[in-house]
Amino acid sequence: MNSSVITDSETLALREFHPFKTDGVTYLYMVPSAGIFRMDGPSDAILEALGKGPKVKTELINELSGQFNIDLLLETIDELIEIRAIGDIDAPKDLVPNDLPPVGFPLTTMVLNVTNKCNLACTYCYEYGEDKIVDTKYGNQPKFMAEETAKESVEFLLEESRGQDVAHITFFGGETLLNFPVLQDTVAYARRRAAEEGKRIEFSLTTNATLLRPEIIEWLADNQIGVTISIDGPKEVQDGLRVFHNGKGSYDVVEPKIKELLKRHKTRPIGARVTLTQKNMDVLKIFRHLTEEMGFWEVGLAPVTTQDQRDYAITSEGKDDMLEQFGVLAQEWLECALNDEHHGFSNVKDTLEEIHKGVSKAYGCGAGLGLMGVATDGDVSLCHRFAGSPEHTIGSVTDGIDRDKQGKFLVDHHIASKTDCHTCWARPICSGGCYHEAHVQYGTSSHPNLHYCTWVRSWTHTCLEIYGALAEKNPKFLNRFDA
How many CB atoms lie within 10 A of CB 437? Predict the structure, then answer.
């Protein structure tokens, strides 16, 4: 025995982590590193003992020496100290580092708002509804992006994606397909210019599907364009809030077009993006309709972004109901994954990928950094949701990025500036959440989304349990997240 170590008077205490169990096995999700560690008998016992309060190392070893070999206990204590699960009670708490990204951080995804006009009048729309932050109806910006502006945007992306072999362009609106000719010209131009620069550009778009027609579907398939369809579910759900300007529902228009797209376009997965509101909370019914009846490969569901007083805003009880149904789909996803089968609930897949890669975010998302939105006039904003908002504009495709504005944004929105988040174990995954959501709720994009804290922690815990189950029963499945 190493008596000099055993008589060490150091007082040990738990540090910051979140425990979760899978089939009786304890795992630790470390904060803020986002590492995941599997516990065994001795480590479980040490953590349980320290969970009752700090202990001098000799006291801890004496307490557990009847269960485990002393050398094994000493080795395990050292390992737990190394991963920072435990430590000296007097050691300073791990502070949230203010590690700002370097100037010139490469742009990887550019979202082109090719139009700010839409042929639908969805009640809850963040762009045209009650919570809009840009006057798209009477504002000075052009309704459609010009071909020249789109080409300048491509040049901007090629310049700002320096050092990256692959860059991404996502076409957005309004209703994106209202400006289909510019989409065609931009893809052709971007492909040619990327080849000249030794790069590859991948393309995707979001559409409400109302304007899909055979020649557009052929073009999407032939050009391997990723497609996300904004759709809220079966007819009674879709027609409740996703309506034309005359109030007519859109389901009967989009349903045959979507099925034709799914039948023809096989070069890229086609996903559905659902906005959940208090008026359409049957998550299971929506998901099953879109996957089993419509045929979507993947479906992602997100709560509506709006102020609490709106009649479609999700209540606290609604959030609980949504979480419960998400849990049902998450378990279905797990059963499929254990059998190496596909399940289309993308919310699980997206969170598990971040967990697997050990993502520990300094920012809620890549907006204003690796992702930027371009308005119809070429102004560059934090993301597509802020396109056209002077307050959130950080440059233009012709003049480049205003590094002073970008730098201020990066300081103000860093997790280090969000003191409310500093004691939350889920901060590596969340980092305060969506900036646009924060702006709508609190009037400033730098505010953490405190109204979703409980929900985010609960959902992250569910996904951690799923991750642990895969690690125990089908670890090879996790390899697909390495790419």
Answer: 23
Query: Do the beta carbons of residue 426 and residue 290 sit within 8 Å?
Result: no
Sheet with 25-30, strands from edge to edge, namely 17-22, 25-30, 36-38
| DSSP codes joined into one string, 257-278 | HHHHHHHH--SS-EEEEEEEBT
- Tokens representing 432 are 């305060």
Q: Which residue has the tokens 């997965």?
A: 269
Q: What is the mean pLDDT of residues 400-407?
A: 95
Tokens of 132: 């809009």
When pLDDT is cut at 50, 70 and 90, the band that residue 378 belongs to is very high
Pair 250, 238: CB distance under 8 Å: yes
The pLDDT of 42-62, averaged and rounded, is 96
Cβ-Cβ contacts under 8 Å for 207 (sequence gap 6 or more): 173, 175, 176, 177, 227, 228, 229, 230
Q: Is 288 exposed, middle or buried (0-12, 13-18, 19+ CB in 10 A)?
A: middle
| Sheet hosting strand 109-113, strand order edge to edge | 298-303, 270-276, 226-230, 200-207, 166-172, 109-113, 371-374, 379-381, 393-396, 400-401
Question: Which CATH architecture does the domain made up of 3-88 adopt?
Answer: Alpha-Beta Complex (3.90)
What tokens were used for 199?
């790069």
Helix (H, G, I), strand (E, B) or coil at 244: strand
| Per-residue pLDDT at 4 exceeds 50 | no
| Closest to 441 (Cα-Cα) out of 428, 451, 431 | 451
Phi, psi (deg, nearest 5) at residue 209: 75, 0
In the sheet that holds 11-14, the strands lie side by side as: 55-56, 11-14, 86-88
Q: How far is CA 244 from the centre of its chain?
A: 29
Among 231, 232, 150, 140, CA closest to 183: 150
**Does residue 100 surpass a pLDDT of 90?**
no
Helix (H) or strand (E) holding 379: strand 379-381
CATH code for 109-344+367-401? 3.20.20.70
Domain map (residue ranges) of the chain: 3-88, 109-344+367-401
Higher pLDDT, 127 or 80: 80
Res. 417: pLDDT tops 90: yes
pLDDT of amino acid 6: 41
The SS3 of residue 33 is coil
298 contacts 346 by C-beta, under 8 angstroms: yes
For the entire predicted model, the pTM comes to 0.93
Closest to 6 in 3D by CA, of 69, 74, 84: 74
Residue 70 to residue 62: CA distance in whole angstroms: 9
Three-state DSSP class for 447?
A: coil
Residues forming beta bridges with residue 277, ordered by sequence position: 280
Q: What is the rounded end-to-end Cα distance, in angstroms, of the chain?
A: 46
